[in-house]
Amino acid sequence: ETGVTQTPRHLVMGMTNKKSLKCEQHLGHNAMYWYKQSAKKPLELMFVYNFKEQTENNSVPSRFSPECPNSSHLFLHLHTLQPEDSALYLCASSQPLAGTDTQYFGPGTRLTVL
Amino acid sequence: AQKVTQAQTEISVVEKEDVTLDCVYETRDTTYYLFWYKQPPSGELVFLIRRNSFDEQNEISGRYSWNFQKSTSSFNFTITASQVVDSAVYFCALSEQGDSSYKLIFGSGTRLLVRP
Lengths: 114, 116
Hints:
The complex is a heterodimer.
Chain A: E1 4-7, E2 10-13, E3 18-25, E4 31-37, E5 44-50, E6 53-57, E7 64-70, E8 73-79, E9 87-94, E10 104-105, E11 109-113
Parallel strand pairs in A: 2-11
Antiparallel strand pairs in A: 1-3, 3-8, 4-5, 4-9, 5-6, 7-8, 9-10, 9-11
Chain B: E1 3-5, E2 10-14, E3 19-21, E4 24-26, E5 33-39, E6 46-52, E7 59-61, E8 64-69, E9 74-79, E10 88-97, E11 102-106, E12 110-115
Parallel strand pairs in B: 2-12
Antiparallel strand pairs in B: 1-4, 3-9, 5-6, 5-10, 7-8, 8-9, 10-11, 10-12
């Protein structure tokens, strides 16, 4: 595997379900990000982790719970979501300490909340 | 506040035409980075280019070229001799340094449709 991978690619869940999105990066980066992309809206940054520590929470509702057990893995735990949470969730990674902050993205998880 | 504006929502061209995607940004930082990403229908954002604010040289990579002009706060992207495979949504982004990492401020994207 190379780059940034995300699973599952598609997810349909009810409002009472609990599910998790997984992101894994094989680039040796130390920073990882969750973004939300809704129809007709700009990409919204949700969370930033740097060296496993959360450094940014962009006023995201508590029904989204991130977890970063190590620099290569990032999860987004979902519970009691709303239909308006249906979107493409993108994970990215970067290596800010190396002087380059280019973020590399995964293919995304397309989430539908019924 | 940091802001990126992509005024063109959708552009449609016929294959082999040249097309320019506009990007205008606002920032108070003296050091910043600008990016272009491509998002094909599959969804993944593909990194195309990163430009440092101190480097105003235009860049060419195959059929792609970028025109960075600090005086007008613009970072435009031109595709020469467009192809159907260029059809995608293109995002311009501005990097903002946070406490210990960087945040990307994205424009709203321009959807490019290249017709055969």
